[in-house]
Amino acid sequence: DIQLTQSPSFLSASVGDTVTITCRASQGISSYLAWYQQKPGKAPKLLIYVASTLQSGVPARFSGSGSGTEFTLTISSLQPEDFATYYCQQLHSYPLIFGGGTKVEIK
Amino acid sequence: QVQLQESGPGLVKPSETLSLTCTVSGGSINSYYWSWIRQPPGKGLEWIGYIYYSGSTNYNPSLKSRVTISVDTSKNQFSLKLSSVTAADTAVYYCVRDRGYVDYWGQGTLVTVSS
Prior knowledge:
The complex is a heterodimer. By secondary structure, chain A is mostly beta strands.
């Protein structure tokens, strides 16, 4: 199975900051990666798929990039509602695998 | 707007079978893949398996021996059965629309395995 490693596991940031989360795959997955946001007690929400395509309704401050084995999620000008846990997920092959998550907290 | 709703017991005894049903509304279950994903309390996400509306399935090898997913297109529902459960199966279970990425999620239902 493909393994995904997210870093950092935790980050502390302020409103207005730009933050970057990295997801590394154990083997090349082309652009077959998605990103989700999860708030406590809620289901995850799709932000980005196939590495850089923004899901409808997701603010443009979220962006994704990368291909092969290294991917990034960037949140520009962090807003109060962005404090959450973020997961990457590979869609290259089954079983679908998620990264371990990155919790973004308020500094 | 597609909506998914999980239903089923919130408490299951060890060694018994966990059974959940997902009802899809706002759209047809036809022509898509539908999956179950679970999340143990405070932990990450694990894909359990999918079913296509035609009935073809694919399961996570880590759970394959215990999982059955079925579909009832007449009711716009699909279901999960997980046998021989232990405390390690305690989790929030989500039913989702699976396009490789997941664009629609149910709200999730907590299933606790305990005697």
